[in-house]
Amino acid sequence: QVQLVESGGGLVQAGGSLRLSCAASRRTFSIPIMGWFRQAPGKEREFVAAFRWLGGSTYYADFLKGRFTISRDNVKNTLYLQMNDLKPEDTAVYYCAAAKEYYSGTYRATSTYDYWGQGTQVTDSS
After folding, report:
1. Whether residue 121 has pLDDT greater than 80
2. Fewer CB near the terminus (10 Å): N or C of the chain?
3. pLDDT number for residue 39
4. Residue 10: its pLDDT value, please?
5. Among 49, 45, 54, which Cα is nearest to 20's?
6. How many Cβ atoms from other residues are within 10 Å of residue 64's Cβ?
7. Half-sphere exposure of 104 (CA within 13 A, CB side)
């Protein structure tokens, strides 16, 4: 079992930045892949970014165009999502997720992940 707790969400104006954190209840290097997803009102949950512990590979949704960066701190057992140049369409609840096993190429699918946090709200205040 892994408990995930997100933090760092809030109100932000267009063009601003936020850093989301996801604290895991066990050592993150034992989790093959962790990711960030988001869900806007009335929409399905969508993939944002993922971090694979083996080799430190990172994956991003195409729509981000370099605005977000995923990273991790193994000492703190924490996953981060640095979000820059935020846009109104980034308004959503952001979820952290972790998988028990990982099969190459499946990082975008919600079904890949077994554990989910409660989510943190990011809202455009413009």
Report:
1. yes
2. N
3. 98
4. 95
5. 49
6. 15
7. 3
Exposed e or buried b per residue across 85-124, where buried means at least 16 C-beta atoms within 10 angstroms of its C-beta: ebeeebbbbbbbbbbeebeeeebeeeebbebbbebbebeb
DSSP string, 92-116: EEEEEEEESS--TT-TT-GGG--EE
**Amino acid (one-letter) located at 14:** A
Query: Nearest Cα to 123, choosing from 87, 84, 91?
Result: 91
Write the pLDDT tens digit of every residue in 85-115: 999 999 999 999 999 999 999 999 999 999 9
CA distance 79 to 7: 11
pLDDT digits (tens, 9 = 90+) for 9-47: 999 999 999 999 999 998 777 889 999 999 999 999 999
Query: How distant, in Å, are the alpha carbons of 19, 34, 89 from that of 85?
Result: 12, 23, 11
Q: What is the pLDDT of residue 53?
A: 86
